[in-house]
Amino acid sequence: MDTIEKQAEQLRRLVWHSRRGMLELDVLLLPFTENHYSALNETDKRVYRRMIDCEDQDLFNWFLEKSKSPDSEIQRIVELVLDNARSH
Amino acid sequence: MPVVIEARISAPKRRAWYLWLATVQGMLLSTLLSWPLTTHLLWLTLPFFGHFFWTADYQAKRIRLALDGVQLWTDRAIERYQWHGEGRLSHAFMKLELSRADGQRLTLILWQASVSAASWRALNMGFRVMQPTLRAAHDRQNLSDGAWAEGSSFFR
Predict the structure, then answer these.
(1) Which chain A residues are closer than 8 Å to B128 by Cβ?
(2) Do B19 and B79 have their domain in common?
(3) Please, how many CA atoms are within 13 Å of residue B15, restricted to the half-sphere of its CB?
(4) Which of B26, B78, B91, B101 is deepest in the core (most CB within 10 A)?
């Protein structure tokens, strides 16, 4: 399997994982994964994948800015997703 | 790319049922308290007043919320409004203060029962994520730098 195929499969898997049990999170995560994930650098992609593995309730609180992630890298990605959702 | 949320709006299904329930309860109460017959009849006006007020509401069939741009589909046309983050969110309804380029204003109330559960949750998230940003942007736009600084010094 070549690199492009691997990347495509990884993206498909991430899109699948972006469909959460909470619809509120789908609204933010799905468009970001589909439209912006590929443009991230390798470090950010790795952190994004770590973020996707977090619990729904934690993600919900971080995205609603009720609390901040204890992991500063994940918090940075949360803010990146929010900035994208709020930009034209 | 902003969050885009689309939802179909329909008349709340249980609205009429709740109105009639309130009417029957009111009439029973009047009977228990032995109020005059005219009081009983007054309760009957409740469903009609309710129906009148609700049909006087703005009737949109669909809404598309994309950051500050709001599109509303009515029977006649697609209307475009701007949302500056003004409004209110409660468990039962969402109120959006909208305006158009020609200065026309609209207060749109979306009842939870008028959209699907999935749409309501998506709209909720959209409202919560977008409101602070839009409100801050609108405030910055309306206040000059000096006024902004002056206003903030008030809270010191």
Answers:
(1) 64
(2) no
(3) 18
(4) B26
